[in-house]
Each structure stands twice: as structure tokens, then as C-alpha cells.
Amino acid sequence: QLQLVESGGGLVQPGGSLRLSCAASGFTLSYYAIGWFRQAPGKEREGVSCISSSGGSRNYADSVKGRFTISRDNAKNTVYLQMNSLKPEDTAVYYCAAHGPGCSTLPHTWGQGTQVTVSS
User: pLDDT per residue over 3-35, tens digit each?
Assistant: First the structure.
């Protein structure tokens, strides 16, 4: 069974940092591009970042460029999202999803999400 599990969310003050992890089980993560998405209360889900299967291509939403960094460790079957300089507007449930080999393909497997709350 293909499964993705996010972890690392929590409560952090504005300006703080968190690192989210997306661990895969039941399949080899290295074959797939992995995207991070988020959904805030009352808002639609939006794409945050994506990394290609090789790790050679990464993209970011304008709202997080320069603050978030996506990376992957295929040996650990895990993708990370390092989030720095967090803002209250980053508060959301964060999901990871497996695409095909590239980020332009539709995601087909989703994690259950992890809550990130940025508040003083």
C-alpha cells in the first residue's frame, strides 16, 4: 500500500523555523516528484513547492521563495521542507503528495497532513 506520512508541524512564533518531513512507505520515493501543498481555513489548497524525482528541479510559490527550501534524501525515502522566517499567513495544514516523475504531472498519492501554526 502506497503511503505518505508528514511530520514536523507545530506551533512556532513569527520569524521562527520548522522542518517538515514526508516519509514514504510501500513504494520507492526516488521514482516520483514530490510536492508540498497547504490549505488554510476557508481557503483553497495551494501548491507550495515541488522537487523532481532526481532532485535537479525545484520550484516554489512566490509567497515562500527565499524562505522555504525543499530537499530529498532518497536513501531515507524522505522529502523535507525547511521553512524559515515563518509568517502568520503560513498557518495551514501542510500536505505532501507524490506526482509522476516530474512536477508537472498530477499528484496521485497524498499524506494526511500536518498542522503548522505561526502565532505569537
Answer: 999 999 999 999 999 999 999 988 888 899 999
Cell of 18: 520548522
Angle at 120 between CA 90 and CA 50, to 5 degrees: 15
Q: How many C-beta atoms surround the C-beta of residue 36 within 10 A?
A: 26
Residue among 101, 10, 20 nearest 68 (CA): 20
Rounded to whole angstroms, how far apart are CA atoms 89 and 2? 31
The x, y and z cell numbers of residue 89, run together, are 499567513
The residue count for the chain: 120
Residue 58: strand pairing partners: 51
User: Which pLDDT tens digit goes with each residue over 55-112?
Assistant: 899 999 999 999 999 999 989 999 999 999 999 999 999 999 999 888 999 999 999 9
CA 113/CA 76 separation, integer angstroms:
20
